[in-house]
Amino acid sequence: MADISDEIRPSRLRRGWDSDLAWSFRRNPVAMVSTAVVLILMLGALFAPLIAPHDPFNPGSLNLMNGFTPPGTANAFTGEVFLMGTDDQGRDVFSTILYGMRISLFVGFAAVGLALVLGVTLGLLAGYLGGWTETIIMRTADVQLTFPAILVAMLIFGVAKGITPPEYRDQVAIWVLILAIGLSDWVQFARVVRGATLVEKSREYVQAARLIGRSPFSIMLRHILPNVLNPVLVIATISLALAIIAEATLSFLGVGAPPTKPSLGTLIRIGQEFMFSGEWWILLFPAVTLLALALSINLLGDWLRDALNPRLR
């Protein structure tokens, strides 16, 4: 058995390496660079406790004497040197970026996951069942599309925060933020899946599944869903960048992540207060990190969209 598995494993790797998707990836320098940037930033956020020189959110480790230290310059009082400088509270900017990315990425992935599950489920139901189910779902989607997503997210965030007891608001702020962004972003998933389902349900394999007595739930889950995942994957990749930007926007406006758990948006909001007083690094480095993360994910999504489009092969 060991000999057989050893023979099969390289062939599977070879098939993956020679696939159209892998070939397209190797031929696209932008996709490779974007993937490298995304992986570096995500790994930096994941291993922040091991990489960060300081714990910026531990009040016991802060020294106000280190405040406003320029990048790569020894502090006049303590003599400490910080790669990206410090903020007004003496927190190492490099460490705050690593920990801030953890919040931004967590909110982004969780919000996209919520929007994906909700949108795909409603899209499948609307496309397969039709009738009043489709009418209610798609008219709700049309109404939501008339409002900018960020305004919908702010409305949901405000309502959810308003009904939360004041003593628990900071504790649940991240989850409320995920709920707000996720509920504001499900429409595009539902519309794409509904359109693909309308096409797939008229195929011969769906008709055959009906003839042998498959239930509608089984047909949607086992037969239609696998065939509509390609566009969903592309939308999810692009939506991740939009969700991270939405989180940063809400946090920048002061209605997102709490000060006790600042994200990249919160760090940018703090930095802009000192932009005109000469402490440019407090704003610059978090802003550049957010730009690099969102741009790389967007470019990766653009490549994935083209690679999975059979008309462009």
From TrEMBL:
Segments forming domain ABC transmembrane type-1: 101-301
Keyword Transport: yes
Top-rank lineage group of the source organism: Bacteria
PROSITE patterns tied to this protein: ABC_TM1
Subcellular localization(s) per the UniProt record: Cell membrane
Topology in membrane: Multi-pass membrane protein
Family the UniProt entry places it in: Belongs to the binding-protein-dependent transport system permease family.
Protein name from the UniProt record: ABC transporter permease
Species per Swiss-Prot/TrEMBL record: Lacimonas salitolerans
Record lineage: Bacteria, Pseudomonadati, Pseudomonadota, Alphaproteobacteria, Rhodobacterales
